Automatic annotation (TrEMBL):
Assembly and binders: DNA polymerase III contains a core (composed of alpha, epsilon and theta chains) that associates with a tau subunit. This core dimerizes to form the POLIII' complex. PolIII' associates with the gamma complex (composed of gamma, delta, delta', psi and chi chains) and with the beta chain to form the complete DNA polymerase III complex.
Transferase is among the record's keywords: yes
UniProt-listed Enzyme Commission number(s): 2.7.7.7
Name of protein: DNA polymerase III subunit alpha
C-alpha cells in the first residue's frame, strides 16, 4: 500500500513552498510512487511543466488546485476545496473554476463548486477550515454542512487534526489522508520559514532556540512513510487507501502540441491561404520585384507556409502592421530570422529585402523541423498599447492575453532577502550584495568561485555561513509574477476554455502559463515590442518633416557620404547599438564605407567573435592578407574578408561542401551550436560523408569542419544584424541631415544620465538650448525655429498637473498676453507663489515686457487682486497696481536659478563671449571626461569661500559655471596664494586641473588659472607674422623650439617667400608675445621678418 501525496504545493505557490517540479519528480521516482499530485493554491502556473515531467517518468500526474470556498452565504465559514481532474473534461472544469475565481469578484460558494465538478474529484481540507477568519475549533457545524452534500466528496484530514477533533471520524463522507507537503527534507524547514517571512515581510530571530517552529499542518516529503505509520497506528488505514483509489480514478491525457492557431477572417469565399498568396504577389508587384528570382522564391515560401499551416499567422501579422501604417505609427524594419522571409517583405511586415541581402528563409521557417514562426513586431514604445488595443478589438477581449513570467530569486536577491529576514541592516545587505559579481545569471556557487570577497564574507562567522546556506536553498525559486515584455497570445476559442487566466495590466487578461507551456498546449505567441529607438526614430521623422514635408525615411539612400561620416567619426551618441565607448573605438579604427560594414560590426561586437574584429579591420584596409581554407569558400566569405561572421554562412558552407539542403543546414547549425561532443561527432561523420561524395578530400573536409566547429557558437543571425543595422543607419542619416530633429527626438526619450550627455553634445554642435516659454513649450522637449526648447516636464518641482493646465488653457483660450493674463486664465488651484516663482526663475515669462525681478516682486499683489476680483472690473484694471517694478536679477543669479530648477543654463553665458578660447584651446565642458583626467575648463566665478587647512593655511572652494552647468573648484594653499588676488566674482577664467566626481557632483583641483579676457585679447587683438626668405633645413625646427619655450595665446603665421605661401600654425604652436620672445625671433630671422599686428 502506497500513501499517494495529493496535497503538494510547488514553489509556484509563490513563497509558500521550496518544492520545484524536479524535486517532486525525484521524490516520486525514488519512492516508486505510481502517482503524484500538484495542487497549488488558486493557480495553475506549474501544471503543464509538472504534467510533462511526471509523465516522462512513467508516473501518473494528477493535476489539481485548491480554492477557498465559502461554506455559508455570509462568508463566515471557509474551507479550501482541492479539485483534481479525472480526465480532460475535468481539466476544463478546473480551468473554469480557476478562471471564475481569478476574473470575477464573486465569492466561490460550496454549491457552485459542487455544480461545476462532474469530472472533478473534490477534497475539502478540514485543517484549512476557518470560522470568522480563525482556525476552526468545533467541527460539528462543518460536518453538518457536508452531511447535506449528496455528491461524493472527500474530507481531507491529518493525524494531528484528528487527535484534536475526534468527532471528525463520524463524518458521512470518506476521510482522506491529506497532509500538506511544502518542502522535501526536514533540513529544508528553515528555507521554508524564510520564504514565508519574505512573503509576510516579517523577521526571524537567529539567536532564538524556538526560531524554527513548524508551520501547523505542513510537512516534508521525506516524512511520508512516518506519517503513514501514524495513520495506521491511529486506525486510519482506509484514509491512506483512499489516496490510492483517488489517484487511480485520475486518468488525465492532455492533448498537447496540437495546433490551436487563430483563424484570420476572410470573406468572398476565399481561403486564408488564397488571400495570403494574393497579398504577397501584390506586395512584390508594388515593390517592382517581379523577376523570376523573386517569383520563384515567393512561390517556394508560400508552399512551405501552406504545408506547415501558418497562412493565418502571416495574415494576422500583416493585418496588425497594416493597421500601424494606416495610423502613421512607425514600424521596425524587422528583427531576427523573420527578415529572411520574402513573404514577410512582400506583405510589408519587414523592410529588409532577403534576396538583396542574401538571407535564408529556412533560418526562419524550416519544413524539415516543426517550429512555429516567430516574427517580432517592433513599434514605438509609446504606441505599443495602441497596437494591443487594436488587437483586442479585432479578435475580442476574451481571445487575447498577455503572457505571465516570473521574477526569480537570483543570487543577490536570495542573499538580500535572507539577510533581511534575519535582521541585517541596509548597509550589511549592500555589503553582501556588492561582494557578489554583477554578472547576469550568476549563481551563488559561481560567485564563490569568482569572488574572494564573497568567500571571506561567508567564512567570517557561523551566522554568515547560515545566511549563505539558506540563500542557496531558495536561490532560483520564483518570487513574483510579471508580464512578458512583448508576448501575447491570440486564440479562436475563448482563452478561458484553453488556459488558466488572471488579470494582467492595462485591462488585459494574462495567461497563468508561461511562453513554453503555451506552446505545449498549442497556442502561438505573437511578439509586440515597444522599442524606445523606434519612438526616437518616429519623433525625429516627425520633426524633420515639419520643415521638409516631402521627406520619407523609406527613400533614403544607403550609400550616403554624410551618414557614413557619422560612423567614421564615431559620432554615434543616440545611435541604436553604437553608443558604447568600445563600439566607437571599433568604428574609429574600421572607418566604415558601406552598409555591410555596419552589419558586420553589429555581428562582431559580442563576446567570442569580438576576437575577429582586428582581423576584419586589417583585411578591409589591406594590411592583412585575405586567405581561404578552400577556393570554394570565396563566394561565401568574400563579403566578410574570409571570416565566418554569420550563421547563414555556416549554412551555405555545409550546403556547398556536403550537399545539405538549406533546411538540413539549419538543423546542422542548431545541432552543432549546442557544443555537445556527441552531436558534433555525429554531424562530422555525416558532413564528411557528404563532402567526400562531392569530391573533396579527407584533409580538406577535416579543416573545413574544424572551421565550422570553431565559429558555430559565435555566428550571428545575419537577418537580425541587417535589420538592426537599418535602424542604426536611419538614425545616423537623421543625425547627419536633420540634427535639430534628431536631437530633440533623443532628448524626449533620454534617461537623465543620457540627457546630460546629449545636452553637452548640443553645445558642441552650436545648437541653441532654449528655456521653457509659457506660449511655446509643451510637456517635453520641442523643436523651435531657434533651437531646442525645454518642456515643462523638464522643470523640477513643477507639478505635472500644472504643466497640463498651462498647455490646455493655451489651447482653449489662446496665447497668454502677459503674466497677469496667464494668472487670470489659470485654475487658481495651481497658482501658488512657489509654482509661479519656479516658472519665473526658468524664464518662462521672458517673452513679456516685465523683468524676472519685477515679476517675482509682483506675485503676491497680482494673486491678491485676482482673488478679490479687481481684474474683472475695467476701472479696477486701470487703477489697481499691476506690477511692482523691481531691479532685475543679475546674470549670475539667473543662471543659478535656471540650473537649480532644470540642471541647465539658458541665459547667454558670460563664457560664450570667449568662444575663440574654447575653439582653439581644447576646452572641455563640465562633466566631460572622467575622474583623474587633467583638463581645461572655461568657467565664470559665482562665489569664493575661503577656509583654512588643518595646518592653518588658507585655501578656497570656488563655485563656477559654464553653459552646461556648475562645478566646484578647489584651490589648495599653493594655488590659492598664487591666484586668489586675481580672481573676481562674475569674471571668466580658463582653469587647468584634475577632474573629480563625488556623490554625482563634478569638481576640479585647480593647478593653473588665466584670465579669459587677457587670453581673448591676445588671441583676437594680436597676430604674430614671421617671414622666411630662404629655405634653410634647420630653420623651421629652430622657430618651433622658440615658440614651444614661450607657449601662449597669440596665433602665429609663417609666410614662405620662395613659394608665396602663408601658413597658420596649429594651436599648440601659438606663443606668448613680449619683447624678450620677439628679440629671439628677430635674431633668428631678421628684424624686418618679424611683425606683430593688433
Amino acid at each position: 500500500m502506497k500513501y499517494i501525496p495529493l496535497n503538494i504545493s510547488s514553489s509556484y505557490s509563490l513563497l509558500q513552498s521550496t518544492l520545484t517540479v524536479e524535486d517532486i519528480k525525484r521524490y516520486a521516482v525514488e519512492n516508486e510512487l505510481p502517482a503524484v499530485a500538484l495542487s497549488d493554491h488558486e493557480v495553475m502556473y506549474a501544471c503543464i511543466d509538472f504534467y510533462q515531467v511526471i509523465k516522462q517518468s512513467k508516473i501518473n500526474p494528477i493535476i489539481g488546485a485548491s480554492l477557498t470556498c465559502q461554506l455559508t452565504t455570509d462568508g463566515s465559514m471557509t474551507i479550501d476545496c482541492f479539485c483534481y481532474a479525472e480526465n480532460y473534461q475535468g481539466y476544463r472544469q478546473l480551468l473554469a473554476l480557476i478562471n471564475k475565481n481569478k476574473l470575477t469578484e464573486e465569492d466561490l460558494l460550496l454549491q457552485a463548486v459542487l455544480e461545476e465538478s462532474s469530472h472533478l474529484i473534490l477534497v475539502f481540507a478540514l485543517q484549512s477550515t476557518q470560522v470568522d477568519s480563525h482556525p476552526c475549533q468545533d467541527f460539528s457545524p462543518i460536518l453538518d454542512i457536508f452531511q447535506a452534500v449528496q455528491q461524493s466528496v472527500y474530507l481531507g484530514i491529518d493525524v494531528q487534526l484528528l487527535s484534536l477533533h475526534p468527532e471528525i471520524k463520524e463524518a458521512s463522507h470518506s476521510l482522506l489522508a491529506f497532509d500538506h507537503f511544502s518542502y522535501e527534507k526536514m533540513e529544508d524547514l528553515e528555507a521554508r520559514l524564510v520564504l514565508k517571512a519574505i512573503g509576510e515581510k516579517s523577521q526571524l530571530d537567529y539567536t532564538n532556540q524556538k526560531k524554527f517552529e513548524r508551520i501547523p499542518h505542513e510537512f516534508a516529503l521525506e516524512e511520508m512513510e512516518k506519517i503513514k505509520e501514524e495513520y495506521l497506528q491511529a486506525g486510519l488505514l482506509e484514509a491512506v487507501e483512499e489516496t490510492e483509489k483517488l489517484a487511480a480514478s485520475c486518468e488525465l491525457n492532455l492533448p498537447l502540441h496540437e495546433k490551436r492557431l487563430p483563424k484570420f477572417k476572410v470573406g468572398n469565399n476565399q481561403s486564408s491561404h488564397e488571400l495570403l498568396v494574393e497579398k504577397s504577389y501584390e506586395g512584390l508587384k508594388k515593390r517592382n520585384l517581379t523577376s523570376d528570382k523573386y517569383m520563384d522564391r515567393l512561390e517556394k515560401e508560400l508552399n512551405v507556409i501552406e504545408e506547415m499551416g501558418f497562412s493565418d499567422y502571416f495574415l494576422i501579422v500583416w493585418d496588425i502592421m497594416l493597421f500601424a501604417r494606416n495610423k502613421k505609427i512607425q514600424t521596425g524594419p524587422g528583427r531576427g530570422s523573420a527578415a529572411g522571409s520574402l513573404v514577410a517583405y512582400a506583405l510589408e511586415i519587414i523592410e529588409v529585402d532577403p534576396i538583396a541581402y542574401d538571407l535564408i528563409f529556412e533560418r526562419f521557417l524550416n519544413s524539415e523541423r516543426y517550429s512555429p514562426p516567430d516574427i517580432d513586431l517592433d513599434f514605438p514604445d509609446n504606441k505599443r498599447q495602441v497596437i494591443l488595443d487594436y488587437i483586442q478589438k479585432r479578435y475580442g477581449l476574451g481571445h487575447v492575453a498577455q503572457i505571465v513570467t516570473f521574477g526569480s530569486l537570483g543570487a543577490k536577491q536570495a542573499v538580500r532577502d535572507t539577510g533581511r529576514v534575519f535582521g541585517l541592516s541596509q548597509e550589511e545587505l549592500s555589503s553582501w550584495s556588492q561582494s557578489i559579481p554583477s554578472k547576469p545569471g550568476i549563481t551563488l556557487a559561481e560567485a564563490q568561485e569568482e569572488s574572494k570577497e564573497f568567500v571571506q564574507k561567508i567564512s567570517m562567522n557561523s551566522f554568515n555561513q547560515f545566511i549563505y546556506l539558506i540563500a542557496g536553498k531558495i536561490e532560483g525559486l520564483p518570487r513574483n509574477i510579471s508580464t512578458h515584455a512583448s508576448g501575447i497570445v491570440i486564440s479562436d476559442q475563448e482563452l478561458a476554455e484553453v488556459v488558466p487566466l488572471q488579470e494582467g495590466t492595462n485591462h488585459m487578461l494574462q495567461t497563468q502559463y508561461t511562453m513554453h507551456d503555451l506552446e505545449a498546449v498549442g497556442l502561438l505567441k505573437f511578439d509586440i515590442l515597444g522599442l524606445k529607438n523606434l519612438t526616437i526614430l518616429n519623433d525625429a521623422i516627425y520633426f524633420a518633416q515639419r520643415n521638409h514635408p516631402d521627406f520619407k525615411i523609406s527613400q533614403i539612400p544607403f550609400d550616403d557620404k554624410e551618414t557614413f561620416e557619422v560612423f567614421r567619426k564615431a559620432d554615434t551618441n543616440g545611435i541604436f547599438q553604437f553608443e558604447s565607448e568600445g563600439m566607437k573605438r571599433v568604428l574609429s579604427r574600421l572607418q566604415p564605407s558601406e552598409f555591410e560594414d555596419i552589419v558586420a560590426v553589429i555581428a562582431l561586437y559580442r563576446p567570442g567573435p569580438m576576437n575577429e574584429i582586428n582581423s576584419y579591420i586589417q583585411r578591409k584596409k589591406g594590411d592583412e592578407k585575405v586567405e581561404y581554407l578552400h577556393p570554394d569558400l570565396r563566394n561565401i566569405l568574400d563579403q566578410t574578408y574570409g571570416i565566418i561572421i554569420y550563421q547563414e554562412q555556416i549554412m551555405r558552407i555545409v550546403q556547398q561542401f556536403a550537399g545539405y539542403s538549406l533546411g538540413e543546414a539549419d538543423l546542422f547549425r542548431r545541432a552543432i551550436s549546442k557544443k555537445d561532443r556527441k552531436i558534433i561527432d555525429e554531424q562530422r561523420e555525416r558532413f564528411t560523408t557528404g563532402a567526400m561524395a562531392n569530391g573533396y578530400n579527407q584533409e580538406e573536409v577535416q579543416h573545413i569542419y574544424l572551421l565550422i566547429e570553431r565559429f558555430a557558437d559565435y555566428g550571428f543571425n545575419r537577418s537580425h544584424a541587417v535589420a538592426y543595422s537599418k535602424i542604426a543607419y536611419q538614425l545616423a542619416y537623421l543625425k547627419a541631415h536633420f540634427p535639430l530633429a534628431f536631437y530633440v527626438a533623443i532628448l524626449r526619450s533620454a534617461s537623465s544620465q543620457k540627457e546630460e550627455l546629449y545636452l553637452k553634445e548640443l553645445l558642441k554642435e552650436n545648437i541653441k538650448i532654449l528655456g521653457p516659454a509659457i506660449n511655446q513649450s509643451y510637456r517635453n522637449y520641442y523643436m523651435d525655429s531657434e533651437g531646442i526648447r525645454l518642456g515643462f516636464n523638464q522643470v523640477k518641482r513643477l507639478k505635472r498637473g500644472f504643466a497640463e493646465e498651462i498647455i490646455t488653457k493655451r489651447y482653449e483660450k489662446g496665447l497668454y498676453r502677459d503674466f497677469i493674463d496667464f494668472c487670470k486664465k489659470t485654475d487658481p488651484v495651481f497658482l501658488s507663489p512657489e509654482a509661479l516663482e519656479i516658472l519665473i526663475h526658468v524664464g518662462a515669462f521672458d517673452e513679456f515686457a516685465q523683468s524676472r525681478g519685477t515679476l517675482l516682486q509682483s506675485i503676491e499683489t497680482i494673486l491678491t487682486n485676482i482673488e478679490s476680483g479687481q481684474f474683472t472690473v475695467t476701472l479696477g484694471e486701470i487703477f489697481s497696481p499691476h506690477y511692482i517694478e523691481s531691479k532685475d536679477l543679475t546674470v549670475l543669479e539667473k543662471m543659478e536659478q535656471e540650473y537649480e530648477y532644470t540642471d541647465f543654463i539658458f541665459t547667454d553665458h558670460p563664457s560664450g563671449f570667449y568662444r575663440e578660447i574654447r575653439m582653439y584651446n581644447d576646452i572641455r565642458y563640465i562633466g566631460e571626461g572622467y575622474p583623474g583626467l587633467t583638463a581645461s575648463l572655461l568657467v565664470t566665478i559665482h562665489d569664493i569661500k575661503g577656509i583654512q587647512t588643518k595646518n592653518g593655511e588658507p585655501m578656497a572652494f570656488v563655485t563656477s559655471s559654464d553653459p552646461s552647468g556648475f562645478t566646484n573648484l578647489t584651490l589648495f594653499p599653493r594655488v590659492y596664494r598664487q591666484y586668489i588676488k586675481k580672481i573676481e566674482i562674475g569674471k571668466t577664467y580658463q582653469v587647468l586641473g584634475k577632474i573629480e566626481k563625488r556623490k554625482g557632483a563634478w569638481s576640479m583641483q585647480v593647478t593653473q588659472m588665466q584670465d579669459a579676457e587677457k587670453i581673448h585679447h591676445e588671441m583676437t587683438a594680436c597676430r604674430l607674422f614671421l617671414r622666411v626668405k630662404a629655405s634653410q633645413e634647420d630653420l623651421p625646427f629652430r622657430i618651433e623650439q622658440i615658440i614651444k619655450r614661450f607657449s601662449g595665446h597669440t596665433p602665429v603665421y609663417i609666410h614662405f617667400e620662395d613659394r608665396q605661401e602663408t601658413v597658420k600654425l596649429k594651436r599648440h604652436l601659438w606663443m606668448e608675445v613680449n619683447d624678450q620672445n620677439l628679440s629671439l625671433l628677430k635674431d633668428l630671422l631678421g628684424e624686418e621678418n618679424v611683425a606683430v599686428t593688433e
